[in-house]
């Protein structure tokens, strides 16, 4: 069992609604030393792949994506979820379904900051149905960039998002794939 | 002129609506090496203050806050902006006015992750009217934690948020205070 899996067992909680609560070290109060350990693991898995940018979507995946970009020595690009005044023209968009908020959400990246010359590593803290990842992959495809892979901290294996991407040939690297979760009993693949 | 100010002059743009666009290195595509330089400057300014946590609000300030937390060797706590299923009970809240979206927004932190023993450094990429900062300071006050200071990359000095906090005795440390901004002419304090 790796460090992340140990932390999930020790500190995580399973809540009604299929929620694995890890907000004391991953996505509310964030243990930066743990993020560094996860980022080093990602960097080792994807080494030699000439990654030019790390990409994520706001908001909870940003700390891990930031530390991963720091570890790789490349910039971070984060997709935004709604039109803000601070983004003008030239947007690349993809519409996804957010299961967290049960509504359609549009992911957006400025076309200025991603192009066919890029080799992108997607990083996120969680993957469940994989809708956010599908949107990011769609944006990468639209601009003709290369998708190096997808690096995830916690994947809900039983929701199938990761396996759907793997079936399409994407290198999905998850550090904790949860196959079964109920209070007091979390089982990893 | 420091490194951030040089980058703002070289790469920033002033858009209608009083927007200083720095999304090629600060808040969309993020230059992590620059964030590290800014974080080192923050750490030097606040050294010896026994900071226990860095605090910010989602989303665009998270990369800088993450690198600052990494630099200081402490966890990051980020306030959330809307009720998500992933936060349960025990919330500390503060209502602010978002000028970006022109509506009321509630900032929330779980009471589990902040308390009277904490010495908090607030970090954000931008401060304009200072509403987000006012909300974070309110949350810190409600739980009886100590506010060590506020570290900002870019402050819009002419909007007064920073000076209002300084007038209350808060140590507001901003690396680029913009006093005047129009296309082709950005003046720092």
Provide structural commentary.
Chain A is α/β, with parallel strands linked by helices and 189 residues long. The first copy, chain A, has one domain (3-188): 3-Layer(aba) Sandwich (Rossmann fold), CATH 3.40.50.2020. Chain A is built from 5 helices and 11 strands, in the order αβββαβαββββαβαββ. The first copy, chain A, has helices spanning 3-11, 32-45, 62-72, 131-142, 161-167, and strands at residues 13-15, 19-21, 29-30, 53-57, 76-79, 91-98, 103-110, 119-127, 146-156, 172-182, 185-188. A 6-stranded mixed beta sheet of chain A has the order 5-4-8-9-10-11, with helices on both faces. In chain A, helix 4 links the parallel strand 8 (119-127) and strand 9. The radius of gyration of chain A is 16 Å and the shape is globular. The model of chain A has no long low-confidence stretch (mean pLDDT 94). Chains A and B meet through strand 3, helix 2, helix 3 and strand 5 of A and strand 3, helix 2, helix 3 and strand 5 of B.
Structural class of chain A: alpha/beta
Largest sheet, spatial ordering of strands of chain A:
5-4-8-9-10-11
Shape of chain A: globular
- Radius of gyration computed on alpha carbons of chain A: 16 Å
Q: Could you say what the CATH topology of chain A is called?
A: Rossmann fold
The count of DSSP E runs of length 2 or more, i.e. the number of strands of chain A, is: 11
End-to-end Cα distance of chain A, whole Å, is: 11 Å
Give the name of the CATH architecture of chain A: 3-Layer(aba) Sandwich
Mean pLDDT of chain A: 94
The figure for the number of domains of chain A is: 1
Which assembly state applies to the chains in this document?
homodimer
Largest interface, C-beta within 8 A: A-B, 43 and 43 residues
Q: Outline the biggest β-sheet of chain A.
A: 6 strands, mixed
Query: Into which percentage range does the β-strand content of chain A fall?
Result: 35-45%
Helicity of chain A, in percent? 25-40%
Uncertain parts of chain A: none
Elements of chain A, N to C (H/E): HEEEHEHEEEEHEHEE
């Amino acid at each position: 069992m790796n460090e992340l899996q140990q932390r999930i067992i020790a500190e995580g909680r399973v809540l009604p609604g299929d929620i694995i609560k890890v907000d004391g070290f991953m996505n509310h109060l964030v243990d930066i030393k743990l993020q560094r350990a996860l980022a080093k693991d990602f960097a080792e898995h994807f080494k030699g792949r000439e990654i030019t940018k790390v990409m994520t979507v706001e908001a909870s995946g940003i700390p891990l994506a930031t530390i991963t970009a720091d570890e790789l020595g490349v910039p971070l690009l984060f997709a935004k979820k709604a039109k803000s005044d601070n983004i003008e023209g030239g947007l690349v968009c993809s519409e996804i379904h957010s299961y967290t908020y049960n509504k359609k959400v549009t992911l957006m990246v400025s076309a200025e900051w991603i192009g066919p010359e890029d080799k992108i590593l997607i990083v996120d803290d969680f993957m469940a149905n994989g809708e956010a990842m599908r949107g990011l992959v769609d944006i990468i495809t639209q601009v003709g960039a290369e998708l190096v892979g997808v690096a995830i901290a916690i994947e809900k294996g039983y929701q199938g998002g990761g396996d759907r991407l793997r079936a399409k040939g994407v290198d999905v690297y998850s550090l904790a794939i949860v196959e079964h979760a109920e209070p007091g009993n979390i089982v990893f693949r």
